[in-house]
Write a structure and sequence with these properties.
alpha+beta
């Protein structure tokens, strides 16, 4: 169902509002649990308007009626604060607003777990980013068909949601970008020509 939604007309997708929670919905931390990173990375890197709700960045679990006018004190989640800080810093780039968005296919890499991975890309001039999310609870791997890489022979790929980075050659990217993700995790990869 998710893949079908992502294949919708681009003009239609630009008009959608993207959110994980609001005053009428249960809190995303309680709904998605260990899959929150994947859900947020996927939802907030799609075309359309992005909404965030008060308490979402702290991982609030309790849904209170807005008429109450106050929130309960809940334990702070530094891991989610760090995750959302990285996510927001990345999607604040013009690439994620003015670029061209494309869904990507993920092929198998030794098993059938690639069916658990959803990927898409943003391109703007020489800027290129790939987002891959594992929407299940099981570890998964696959080869992401990135299409034509930016000009250059060697690339530095950085995961903006962690401190991971890798070097890839153009010929390797043409065969597919290998990813392995724990259940519920995601990559937000920026690709640039290596110096």
């Amino acid at each position: 169902e998710t893949r079908g939604h992502l294949r919708a007309d681009a003009a239609y997708a630009q008009k959608l509002a993207r959110f994980l929670e609001n005053h009428d919905e249960p809190r995303s931390a309680s709904v998605f649990g260990s899959r929150l990173r994947a859900a947020a990375a996927l939802a907030y890197t799609l075309p359309g308007m992005r909404f965030f709700f008060d308490g979402q960045f702290a991982g609030a679990d309790v849904r209170c009626p807005v008429q109450l006018g106050r929130w309960p004190t809940e334990p702070d989640r530094p891991d989610l604060r760090d995750f959302y800080a990285r996510l927001l810093a990345t999607i604040d780039r013009p690439l994620f607003h003015e670029g061209t968005w494309t869904p990507l296919d993920v092929r198998g890499a030794g098993d059938a777990s690639n069916a658990n991975l959803i990927a898409h890309a943003w391109r703007k001039g020489s800027e290129f980013a790939v987002v891959v999310a594992n929407i299940t609870a099981q570890d998964s791997q696959g080869l992401v068909d990135v299409g034509e890489p930016p000009p250059g022979e060697n690339f530095e790929i950085r995961d903006r949601l962690s401190d991971g980075w890798w070097r890839w050659a153009r010929r390797d990217l043409k065969n597919g970008l290998y990813v392995r993700l724990a259940g519920g995790d995601a990559h937000m990869l920026t690709v640039r020509v290596a110096a």
